[in-house]
């Protein structure tokens, strides 16, 4: 197990190093001058030069990259060009929205997907199975931002059950905040629930064909009893892996949804920073999200190895 963990740690470090280089190079090739954007088109050249010097834009690419990485390792994310505020403070404020939204969406997708996948697997080939697979196929095909706008039209504009967007802040109370996050969480959760339900069904069907399940059936258990007592537990291994990967996606992939609902989360912060050419914010927030994704994947792989000894043995 120690050897497997060390190999995963090395893979994690390499992934982060490669990601940092890719992110930095991608940001560097974006068109536009941050100094010119901040001062406007009528700014004097000497003023632009002074601001570039202040922001460190006159340094070479390698010097800027080294300074950025050393700052990240020390917990210093730099200072925003636009807001003149430490990026770490901005991230701390925005993650209070993005993290609860990701957890809320993950809980909803799991609550929806597990019963749907189990029901479909227990009625393979029957109308219930066909109906659930049809609905999940539709859920995978429909873009979540389109579904989000549809829910705003129905539940906010017509029925007036929820607000069309915005976030009241946690000082307003947990219930008010959860209500504001409900529609965005549903928009994020439904496509993920569709994927998870299909994976759950496939995993259960594969497990039901195993020898130990057939032995349990030969001893007198019904199909439903064999599914609940034996198949379900073994079928959860790949499903839990997918859940871990989905959490990474929900945390890092909510940019469009946060903009649809005007949520002050990390996704909206990235969008605003790209629009204003605030390179420090974009680089730091994207790198933080990549770090979260890689760490979650690492934790999933370790948990998977604890369950499946074949991985620890390298087979």
From TrEMBL:
Superkingdom of origin: Bacteria
InterPro entries (UniProt xref): BPD_transp_1_N, MetI-like, MetI-like_sf
Residues annotated as transmembrane: 9-30, 101-120, 132-157, 169-190, 235-257, 285-307
Subcellular location: Cell membrane
Membrane-related topology note: Multi-pass membrane protein
CDD domains the UniProt entry points to: TM_PBP2
Keyword Transmembrane on entry: yes
ABC transmembrane type-1 domain ranges (all copies): 95-300
Major location category of this protein: membrane
Gene Ontology CC: one annotated term: plasma membrane
Swiss-Prot/TrEMBL keywords: Cell membrane, Membrane, Transmembrane, Transmembrane helix, Transport
GO molecular function, one term: dipeptide transmembrane transporter activity
Family note: Belongs to the binding-protein-dependent transport system permease family.
UniProt name for this protein: Peptide ABC transporter
Origin species: Pseudooceanicola nanhaiensis
